[in-house]
Amino acid sequence: MSVTTDVSVAVAALSQGKLCAIPTETVYGLAANALDPAAVARVFEAKERPADHPLIVHVASAKDVAQWITNLPQWAMTLIEQVWPGPLTIVGSRTALASDAVTGGQDTVAVRVPSHPIAQKVLNEVKANGVLGLVAPSANRFGHVSPTSSRHVVADLGQYLDTHQDLILEGGECQVGLESTIVLAVDEFPVILRPGAITSDDILRITGIAVAESLSAVPRVSGALDSHYSPIAKVVLITDPAQIDQTNAGFLALVEIDTPSGVHRLAAPRNLEEYAHQLYSALRSADDLSLETIYVIPPSGTGLAQAINDRLQRAAY
């Protein structure tokens, strides 16, 4: 494994069937040519990811979505025109380009356009080489805490990437820190399959259409299992610091909540954006400190708070 800051080196590797962890605005993704079956298979192998768990295809621009998704409703076109590049994934009816390995054997495929400038440069340059999209699930062991820095990628996948002469493209810390919002776009109403930085209020404001509460059957998507985003330490959600009854423990809450005596403060975010940005690093730091328990007071509210709570509830499952 080699950590590089040279985009051209990463592009050459991806175009030749190698894996490369790349930065996005959400988390680092383990990228591979979405049309190279052997490369896609190695993504599953590296992450120890279940074979029926679908991947998200990352493309350079909204113009590229038609190669992967067919019959998008007008509200979805309006949404992607306003949000892409950005932390939004659209799930729609797949074209013939999307393989069963990418879709998990489903009739739908997930596509997004990341906004991180390095990811954008990579996607545009591999596209010039004939690579029409990159799968890029979070660059960590399946079910573990997502990586928001290259150091996190090394900790989880460094040995595998080194053995197979794959790459990590250095891009600093991820700005958002939570995975993209996943929206199902096969009907007249949007359905959020995974909450993220793009909220139901954003979707209503942009499209004029309210998000549907639920459907009887929805596609499988990344990050939707009951237990996910989990550190080694046990995550316990509380409402009051007085509920803490251990000393070899970490504590995560908004800055206005004081740190109880005898525990390690893992982060003290000042607002929801900082909470999202610092969440995964805080969970990982507890494992670095060999703590047994992480006590978390989740933020209240809607929008981004819901996305943060979604990740915390799965981490604590």
UniProtKB/TrEMBL annotation:
Reactions listed under catalytic activity: L-threonine + hydrogencarbonate + ATP = L-threonylcarbamoyladenylate + diphosphate + H2O
GO molecular function: ATP binding; double-stranded RNA binding; L-threonylcarbamoyladenylate synthase; tRNA binding
Keyword check for Signal: no
One record GO biological process: tRNA processing
Localization in the cell: Cytoplasm
Chief site of localization: cytoplasm
UniProt entry tagged with the keyword Membrane: no
Enzymatic class: transferase
YrdC-like domain span: 4-198
Coiled coil region boundaries: none
EC number: 2.7.7.87
GO cellular component: cytoplasm
Keywords of this entry: ATP-binding, Cytoplasm, Nucleotide-binding, Nucleotidyltransferase, Transferase, tRNA processing
Family note: Belongs to the SUA5 family.
UniProt name for this protein: Threonylcarbamoyl-AMP synthase
